[in-house]
Amino acid sequence: MTFEDPVAAPVNKLVLSEEAFFFERSLDMLTVIGLDSHFKRFNPVFIKTLGHSPAELLAHPFIDFVHPDDHTATLAEMEKLKAGAPTLYFENRYRTQDGRYLWLAWTASPQLDQGVIYCVARDVTGQKQMESALRASEERWQLALRGSNDGIWDWNVQTNETFFSARWKTMLGFEEEEISNHLDEWKKRVHPEDIAQVIQVIQEHFEQKTPFYISEHRLQCKDGSYKWVLDRGQAIWNEAGEVLRMVGSHTDITERRQLEAALQLANQELEQRVAERTAQLEQVNAALRESEERNQLAMEVARMFTFEWEPNTDAVKRSPQSAAILGLSAISAEHDTGTGYFQRVHPDDRDRFLAELHALTPENSTYKITYRVVRPDGQILTLEESGRALFKGSGQLTRLIGITADVTQRKLLEAELEASRATLHRQLAEIETIYQSAPIGLNVLDPDLRFVRINQKLAEINGFSVEEHIGRTVRELLPDIADTADKLLRPIFVTGEALLNVEIRGETPAQPGVERIWLESFLPLKEGNRVIGINTVCEEITDRKKIEEALRESEDRLRMAIASAELGTWDWNLVTGELKWDIACKAMFGLSSDVEASMEVFFRSLHPDERDRLQEMIQVVLDSSSGGSFDTEYRTIGIEDRVERWLKAKGQAYYDAGGKPLRFSGMVLNITEQKQAEAQKEKLFQQEQTAREAAERANRTKDQFLAILSHELRTPLNPILGWASILQSPNVSAEKLQIGLTTIERNAKQQVQLIEDLLDISRIIRGQLSLSFAAIDLSEPIMAALETVNLAAQAKEIHIEVLLDSSVGQVRGDAGRLQQVIWNLVSNAIKFNFPGGRVTVQLTQIDRYAQIQVSDTGKGIESEFLPHVFELFQQQDSSTTRFYGGLGLGLAIARQIVEAHGGTITAASPGEGKGATFTLQLPLIPTTHSNNFDAFNQPTLNLENRRVIMVDDEPDSLELVKVILEEEGATVYSVSSATAALRLLTQSQFDLLISDIGMPEMDGYTLIRQVRGLPPQFNRDIPAIALTAYAGDTNRRKILIAGFQSHLEKPIEPQNLLDAIASVIIP
Questions:
Q1: Secondary structure letter of residue 384 according to DSSP
Q2: Three-class SS of residue 380?
Q3: How far apart are CA 73 and CA 290, in angstroms?
Q4: What distance in Å separates the CA atoms of residue 146 and residue 52, rounded to the nearest whole number?
Q5: Do 604 and 656 reside in the same domain of the chain?
Q6: In whole angstroms, what is the distance from residue 85 CA to residue 79 CA?
Q7: Closest CA to 1048 of 1030, 1022, 1066, 1034
Q8: Which residues fall within 8 angstroms of residue 1061, CB to CB, at 6 or more apart?
Q9: pLDDT score at 732
Q10: How far apart are CA 796 and CA 833, in angstroms?
Q11: Long-range contacts of residues 961-965, Cβ cutoff 8 Å, at least 24 apart
């Protein structure tokens, strides 16, 4: 008899119904498997997931549905279950009805008493695919980092939490733990001068005004120095347009060698992040999206792409960045093939590229190669590629994967750097030449006052060789001035302040027993705030001091002479016809001070008996062959007061290179001893006082100029020497090298321009300014000058308006020098203009003159400075805080050049801030030539059988004179030294001597003195002409006193030379 609990039966039934409900409704795959390995039961999700019918599942053991590769592991797990051990987690692959395999994750519990195993499965195929994709993405990320020298950063804009890659940190010299993951770590290292601009660029990108964030700025390193980085990135916005994050990189070209270490650190960090991922699907998806975004951004920024090529199908898969890099459309890139890509490889590189691929084997499966490809648009790229070949077990190549980087810009930079190195070596040699050949003494002293560097000039002053100076102290070499040097120089190492224009007296071994005087400036050489040495500029002024003493004595004698005589001055500008008389001169002609002087007034005031004689004398003086000296006495009758006076006149005429008279100036002395003597003496005394004040101003200007010169020369020397020292380091980065070379080149050009200006002024002062006259159209030098300043104008956005009158005739002048003048005026107009201003250059004809006007809208000229604008060494602002550099020579040089052309140059300005106008007038070439006086009948010159000696150390000058004279029938003996000329003169008779003045060993002055000291039979009285670049009245008088009959200035016109010869050899 069986007893049935009336309560338990309904409860059991209810439990069974609940189990059936959950079994059927579960979202997981549920099944019951017997110990015979056959399915006993399965829920709808199990059937739907695999797609097999219930009958098909029941008809076969479960192992028939398992992937063959998973049989062993699955059966082993089944044996554990049959032994009573539950399965907590197990994965294998099950075949679906359509032949695919799905990854299933199992949890199983055996019920041995029931003879069944309860199993729960979950389809994890999608998760497996995502994990595989993640691994592939990480591999590409790893390749991208290895192929780039960039530091990577990831900025969460919402929280300011920022990921800095290890490479980012090591670029700045920091260890991993020294920089936290916060935006402030970056912001506080941006250079203060760059931060505002960088933030503006970021803001413009956040506002989606630019597709990428790209900025070049400086970051501070751990050691306090700064590195220039190219910072690039791209932001990610949400649907509301809010910025969520920005990922990017920065590049330090100077630290490319640290790429592998930085990428390795980045890879380790990336692997660590992957290892820390959880198995949850949502987290995997988030990690995958983040990795993909970072990968794509890094590849775009670094101009890199990944590829995969299957030789069997010739199919190529590349990352999206490849289309833009290779110049392909999206469709062309998608359907590209390996064969098609090989055809785009540059013909010169194709065989080498294919040979590299053919050489790949299972044992040697990786490669790295640099080659060129030709884009469809013709552009040639240089690519650097790293890849790996995959082989079957039989050794057949199945796939080729890798990463390709566009290194075109890097290769161009490398080529530029190589060229820059050559330029650097050349410029350093030029700088050394300038240093050693400078006409002033230069040296560098260390803190022990030991000579570190010295040029040849200062070595000669001290009386030791350059080598004997190096490493020895001032006290060891120059004990006579050592105490003075200690007193002056030691404080500089403490204060760091320069000491300028100090007079030092003492003796040196170069001239024992002779007290010498030097004018020296000492400038500190600093490293940071510490003075590590002193630059010395030394000029010997011993002779100058003697001259100044002689000048003071001469001034005293002049004051005495002026105090006892009546003098008047005149200046006749023969180009403009303007005649200027001072008050005393007018008084001597019986005129009031407000009467305008003219040549008509002059001749009308002469005594009737004097007019013809004075007219003839003036006509002779205006002929360049006369030498231009004027010395005579004549009578005048005052036009207004009718008083007869005797005047003594002395003057000098001045000519251009072609012998045309330009000016006639001089003085007159009243020798009638009238009552006006006392007033005239007072006037002359006032003039002397003015002259003295002018001399004192000139002396102050000289000191000011030397200070400016020292500053202007040393300012570019400091970065030149500093960068030259830095660039000698073996670890100089490419970017530092580029910056250093650019700095040295810019400052070297600045020094060259300063030296050129100084040389021009030196030539002008010595009367050696060389001009080559020819008929020219002024439009040509104007346009040439404008072309050289165009870039400077564009840099300040200054508009240049050019107004050229094509009807203006030609002028006779030196095109190069006139271009120099125009360039100076226009470059000043740009230099002193405001950004966005205007410069106008106008060419017109005013009467018989061509007029060039350069006007600007710039800072203008103060009225007090305007009269001095063309004076030497004058600058409107010469203070130590001046905004514009320079020596104040340009306009002085321009005036000398213009006046040498017979022209005038003037400046006008309404005032400061209202611009300025410079007006240049040059005489036009007349269609017919006329003179104020009747032309003289020129003597006929016949040089047939005439023997001429020509002496010049310049071969070109010798050849020119020889050709001119031989065409006239002369026999010319050309020699290059005065010694050779003397030898010829003592051996044979000659008719004429033509000699240069400035020559080595023996100059022209010594030569003519020795000739005049020879016996009569050795050509003692030979006619002699000095043909030299030494110009001016002083040089002419010196030459004539030495013994020459005539003086010609270089360059010469053939006719002027023949006229001079005629004047000395024709009676």
A1: E
A2: strand
A3: 35
A4: 48
A5: yes
A6: 9
A7: 1030
A8: 941, 943, 992, 1025
A9: 80
A10: 9
A11: 961/994, 961/1027, 961/1057, 964/1054, 964/1057, 964/1058
Indicate if the alpha-carbon torsion angle 615, 616, 618, 624 is positive or negative: positive
- Number of folded domains in the chain? 7
Q: For residue 216, give the nearest of 739, 796, 791, 747 by alpha carbon.
A: 739
Series of mean pLDDT values for 10-residue runs along the chain (1067 residues):
40 54 84 92 92 92 94 92 86 93 92 91 86 66 58 89 87 88 89 92 91 89 89 89 88 57 50 52 51 58 84 89 86 85 92 91 91 92 92 87 89 82 76 74 91 88 89 90 90 91 85 86 90 90 83 63 66 91 89 88 89 92 91 88 88 90 90 56 67 66 57 62 78 82 72 63 59 86 86 89 92 86 90 92 93 93 84 54 50 86 90 91 72 42 89 89 90 93 91 91 91 88 88 76 87 83 79
* Contact indicator for 496, 531 with CB cutoff of 8 Å: yes
10 inside domain: no
Tally of CA atoms within 13 A in the half-sphere of 442 that contains its CB = 15
In the chain, the largest separation of any two C-alpha atoms, in whole Å, equals 185
CA gap 277, 291 in Å, rounded? 12
- Tokens describing residue 823: 């360039």
Cα angle value 136/138/139 (rounded, 5°): 65
Q: Compute the C-alpha angle 585/588/591, nearest 5°.
A: 85
What distance, in Å, lies between the first and last C-alpha atoms of the chain?
179
Q: Yes or no: say if 893 and 760 are a contact pair by the CB < 8 Å rule.
A: yes
Lookup: tokens for 841:
């250059």
Torsion of CA 425, 429, 431, 433, to 10 degrees: 180
The DSSP secondary structure of 183-196, one letter per residue, reads HHHHHTTB-TTTHH
CATH assignment at residue 336: 3.30.450.20
- Do 281 and 311 have their domain in common? no
Total Cβ atoms within 10 A of residue 690:
10
How far apart (Å, rounded) are the C-alpha atoms in residues 1027 and 949?
Answer: 12
SS3 per-residue string spanning 232-273: EEEEEECCCCCEEEEEEEEECHHHHHHHHHHHHHHHHHHHHH
Q: For residue 156, which phi and psi values (nearest 5 degrees)?
A: -80, 105
Q: How far is CA 482 from the centre of its chain?
A: 41
Amino acid making up residue 82: K
The b/e string for 20-34 (b: 16+ C-beta within 10 A; e otherwise) is: eeebeeeeebbbbbe
170 occurs within a structural domain: yes
Cα–Cα distance, 743 to 741 (Å, whole number)? 5
Q: Which SS3 state, helix, strand or coil, does residue 427 take?
A: helix
Looking at residue 875, its pLDDT comes to 56
Which domain covers residue 657, as residue numbers? Answer: 567-675
Same domain, 136 and 265: yes
Asked whether residue 95 is assigned to any structural domain, the reply reads yes
Q: State how far the Cα of 45 lies from the Cα of 122, in Å rounded to an integer.
A: 10
3-state SS string over 997-1032? CCCCCCCHHHHHHHHHCCCHHHCCCCCEEEEECCCC
Asked if residue 939 belongs to a domain, the reply is no
Cβ contacts of 781-785, under 8 Å, gap ≥ 24: 781/815, 781/816, 781/818, 781/819, 781/822, 782/819, 782/822, 782/841, 782/843, 782/852, 784/819, 785/819, 785/820, 785/822, 785/823, 785/826
DSSP per position, 541-600:
-HHHHHHHHHHHHHHHHHHHHHHT--EEEEEEETTTTEEEE-HHHHHHTT--TTSPP-HH
Backbone φ and ψ for 690, nearest 5 degrees, come out as: -65, -40
